[in-house]
Structures are given as C-alpha cells and as structure tokens.
Amino acid sequence: INNGMKYLSIDDIETATIVNKAKGILNDWVVLTMTQTNRITQQQAFPEFFNQMTHQGIFRSDDTIAKFLRTTIQLCVNNVYDVIRQSSSAVAQQQPQYIRCHQGIDSLCRFLYLLTTQTSDNNNYATRIHLINCILGLIAALCFLDHEEQGDHFHPLAYQRILLNLFQESTNAVTLNTSSSTSNVENPLPNDPVMYYIYLAFTNCLHLLRPQRVTGFAFAWLEIVAHRTFMSRFLLSGGRFTRHIQNMYSLLLVDALRLVAPFIRSGENTPSFQAYYKGILKTFMLLLHDFPEFLCEHYYEFCDSLPLISHQLRNIILSSFPKHIRCPDPFKVNIKIDMLNDISTTPTISYNYSMNIQPAKFKSNLDSYLRTRSPVTFLSELRSYLQQGSDPGSHYNIRMLNALVLYVATQALSTINNKQPLMSSITHTAHMDIFQNLAVDLDTEGRYLFLNAMANHLRYPNTHTHYFSYTILYLFAEANSEALQEQIVRVLLERLVANRPHPWGLLVTFLELVRNPNLKLWSREFMSISPDVKRLLATLTHGFPQFPTSPISAQQPAIVKP
Fold first, then answer.
1. Are 199 and 140 in contact (CB under 8 A)?
2. Which of 2-16, 146-160, 340-354 is the least confident region?
3. At 79, phi and psi to the nearest 5?
4. DSSP of 251-311
5. I need a labelling partner for 321 at 20 to 30 A (CA). Which of 69, 83, 378, 476 fits?
6. CB-based contacts of 483: which residues, under 8 Å, 6+ apart?
7. What SS3 class is residue 511?
8. What was the pLDDT predicted at 65?
9. Whole domain around residue 385: which residue ranges?
10. Residue 537 has pLDDT above 50, yes or no
11. Distances from the Cα of 104 to the Cα of 30, 43, 108, angstroms
C-alpha cells in the first residue's frame, strides 16, 4: 500500500498509451452498467472486458496494472470535480448532477471488484489480495496528493464513496471468485485468510489517511469508519481471525480520537471541531448500545488516547459492560459489592499495556520490587522515570503512568488469596507501597494523572473495579493531608457532573465515599471552602442522609475501617 505514490507519474510514453486504453475501457463499462443494472448480467459481461485488457497488455507487469488502475481512479475523481463545479454554477440541477456522479463512482467500484475476483481462483487468492492492496495504495496516494494540491478546495466525495463501496463489494458473503457456480463441500473456500487480508488492507489504507495526517478528509473518514456496514462487518466477522479484525477496528477508532487531543490542548473550539467531536460521541454511543463487549475489551487504549478533560466521552467508554452481566442498582443503601457473583470475574483487555512500561531496566526493577521489595531505591526513583519522555502539555509520560497503575494492580490481584477479605489482602503490600508513594511523592499534576489512571478502571462488576474502588477509598482514609483527599473527590466529581451515562464502579465508589462515616468526608475543611461544591454534592446525593448524624448510616457497613 505504501508504494502507491510511485505510480502517480504520467510522464513516460507507455503511461500515456495506458491512459488512452483506460479511458476507452472505462467508458464502455460505465455505459454497460447504466444500461444493464442487473448485477449478474454485469458479472457475466465482465470477462469480455477482462480479455480486452489482456489483449492490450494491461496485465504485462505490475507497473502496467498499477498505471491502468491509477488512470481509472483519477478519471473518476476528475469527473467528480467537474460535477461539483457544474452544480455550483447551476444550483437547480444539483441533485441530478450528484446522482450522475454517484453512478460513475459505483460503476468504477463494481469494475475494480470484479477485476480482483477475476484474477484469482479458489485455490490461489494471493493475486487478489495483491491487487486489492495495489488499488487501495493508489487511492490513498491520490487522496493524499490531491489534499496537498487542492488545499481548501479539496473535496473528499470520490475517495469516500470509492472506499466504502469497494469495502462493501469486497466483504460480501461470497469472497472469492464469484464466477464459480459450484463449490466442493470437502474442500471449502478458505474464507478466513481472505477476509483477514481484505480487512487488513482497508485498515492500512484508512490508517494512512487518518484525520491527523489528512485533515481535510477527517469528516469523510469518520463517516466511513462509523458506517453501519463498515462497523458491523468488522465487529461481527466470524472465524479464527475475529479478534485480530476487531483489533484493526480499534486502531481506526484510536486514530479518530487522536485528533481530539491537540484541539482541546490548544483551546480551539471551532464549529468544525465541535461537529467532529459530536460525531465521535455518536459513534461511541452506537458502540455502547450495539457492541458493548467490544468497548469492554478495548477501553484501555481508547482512554489512553483521550485528553483528561473529555469526561463525557470517557464515561461512555467506561459505562460499557457485557450483555450477560446485570449491574445492581448502585444507589441501594444495603448493596454489598463483595457478595456479587460477577465481582470475581477478571476482565479481558485486548491491548498489551505492559509494552508502555519502558525502559526495560525500569520494568525489571519494578518486577523485582513487587516480588522482594528491592532495590530499596526504586520508590525514590519512580517519579523521575515517569517524567522521562513526557507527553505534550504535561511533565509526565501519561501512557507509561497509566500502564504502570494497571500493571501493578494486576500483579497484586494475582497474589491475592481468595479466601481472605480483599481489604486485608491489598494493604501493607509492595503493590500498595507503590500506590501510596505515588500519592505522596508526586506533585499536584502527577497525582491528578495518577488518580485518573485508577478511576479509568471503575467500570462494571469485576476484579479490577473491586480492587481500584478499595484502593481509592483506602488512599483517602490513610491520606496524611487533605490535599490528596480533595483531589480524590475532584477526580470522581468531575466525571459525575458530566452528562450520563456514568460507569457503575464510579457511582459505587463515590457513594461509598459519601455514605461511609469513617471517611468523614463532610467534615473536611475543603468541603466548606466553596458553597457551590457542597451544594453540588448535596444535589448529587439527594435522597441520601448526610453523615455523620444519620441513623441509617450507622447501620451501613463500612468498606474502609478506621
């Protein structure tokens, strides 16, 4: 796919000859598809065009094939620009002009799809995959170059429709040579490898055209990724490559999120960015409703790509839970988290977050400290390691801090004896020593990042939610200053004041913080500094008694003992 740029030159005589051949073949094909709308009829007529291309030497080498494909795509793109100019000068004819434009694009996509199937058979699909990669590489290269040359006059319509239509054609149920009318039951078509490489090709193409790289294509790009067909086929693909294909889709969503951070960091709130961000919100709301298991498995990499201020979007991601799980009402006064059946379930995380713990020497020292509490200088050096390779706009390496927090927690959970109460198991351990050191040794910014990293795992009932809920409450109870306690309340409150939905684990942790008389939240000095904050907390906890005077609260068992 990355080689698409080298076929953009049209200087040599051979290329000029191929251009003339491409014009004739493509014009004949467009006429046929507009007169013969039946897809089977088009498929039956295509071998004649294929033979014509063979006789004219189009398939003589990879170079001639690539130049032919480049010409057909460029002709279609030029036609779109011509239609746009005509429609701008004749507004009354805008709709018919765009319909004609779409017909030309659809004819090209049908031609390219049949070409990929005609060049391979049931036993050899490598040629088809190679041709698809060539086509997508040329589309990516042409789009990127067109974006650079046209500037503000760039129009993404042709590239968007070609990519989406070609994807729909290529990922239909019959994925190999559609001209075959029979199939051998004993020798089934190898659909899994074919579909895997097709999905991989489209992922690579869209990754090359990601919003950060081709900003003028951002809205069209997001429409492709969020399209119902594109999303459902990526996330509902069966077979042994299902998880790999879902990982490809998560990569594209991360690409979509990475355009958000620079705008928020710079304070730009332009109408175009608002529209883009609203599209992101709608996409993740759709995923939350239709594919919650996918969000559950990939939440880590999404949260890792978001700026801290994106509370509503982060809440949408963290509110997902598997469809077979029923989250109990967190507002019940007598809820007992320890007794929930699902609280002992370990969640699946598809992302290998431990890769972000660098360098290797630090990772080795971390593992050694968790096992033996040596070297003794590890805790004192921890802050300096977290400040190496800091992210833009921060003094800390946020990705490394997020990975460290989850890695330490998973190591702690692996050592817990299930027969012992969780609170007695997590305290006075090397894992808790690291968390307490981070809470005390980090400055205000670092502590805020650290607490947010823990709050990212307050989700549906599972071992991670259970562990981090206890850990946050324990750090609040054992804090030697109200500054840490105030930041804990701030991190939880910032997420709760955002629009719904709110993660179940976040609600449970916050309500325990409010209800538990041993934590003495309402008597803290920072609670009386701002009447607005206290009024906000009272509104959020409306219907619950304010401690420590409530008789109900005395009956409520405390998670954190004094």
1. no
2. 2-16
3. -65, -40
4. HHHHHHHTTHHHHHHHT---HHHHHHHHHHHHHHHHHHHH-HHHHHHHHHHHHHHS-TT-H
5. 476
6. 444
7. helix
8. 87
9. 337-542
10. yes
11. 7, 17, 6
Choose among 230, 237, 252, 135: nearest CA to 196. Answer: 237
The DSSP annotation for 403-471 comes to: HHHHHHHHHHHHH--TTS-HHHHHTTSHHHHHHHHHHHHS-HHHHHHHHHHHHTT--SSSHHHHHHHHH
Residue 414 belongs to some domain of the structure: yes
Terminal Cα-to-Cα distance of the chain (whole angstroms) = 62
Q: Are 489 and 531 in contact (CB under 8 A)?
A: no
DSSP 389: T
| Mean pLDDT score, 548-560 | 38
Locate tokens 């709608």: which residue? 282
Encoded tokens for 52: 């014509």
CA 431, CA 347: separation in Å to the nearest integer? 20
Nearest residue to 459 via CA among 331, 322, 308, 557: 322
Three-class secondary structure assignment of 209-253: CCCCCCHHHHHHHHHHHCCHHHHHHHHCCCCCCHHHHHHHHHHHH
Q: What is the pLDDT of residue 188?
A: 37
* Residue % of the chain over a pLDDT of 90: 35
Q: Is the pLDDT of residue 453 over 90?
A: yes
Specify the higher pLDDT residue, 248 or 331: 248
496: domain CATH number is: 1.25.40.800
pTM of the model: 0.87
Query: Is 231 a member of any domain?
Result: no
What is the identity of the amino acid at 227? H
Rounded average pLDDT over 399-408: 94
Model confidence at 95, pLDDT cuts 50, 70, 90, reads low
Total count of domains within the chain: 1
For helices 94-118 and 157-170, angle between their N-to-C axes, nearest 10 degrees: 40
Question: How far apart are the C-alpha atoms of 82 and 74, rounded to whole Å?
Answer: 12
Confidence tier at 15 by pLDDT (50, 70, 90): low
**Is residue 177 within 8 Å of 115, Cβ to Cβ?**
no
Residue 89 pLDDT grade (very low, low, confident, very high; cuts 50, 70, 90):
low
Average per-residue pLDDT for the chain:
82
Name the token pair of 525.
Answer: 């000095």
Share of the chain above pLDDT 70, in %: 85
Q: What is d(CA 176, CA 128) in angstroms, rounded to the nearest whole number?
A: 9
Least confident span in 68-77, 89-98, 484-493, 506-515: 89-98
129: three-class secondary structure by DSSP: helix
Is 250 inside any structural domain? no
CB 208 within 8 A of CB 1: yes
Instruction: Label residue 9 exposed, middle or buried (CB < 10 Å: 0-12, 13-18, 19+).
Output: exposed
Does residue 32 fall inside a structural domain? no
If you compute the radius of gyration of the chain from its CA atoms, what whole number of angstroms results? 29
CA distances from 288 to 4, 429, 555 (A): 36, 36, 37
Helices 242-257 & 228-235, crossing angle to 10 degrees? Answer: 140
pLDDT (0 to 100) of residue 497: 85
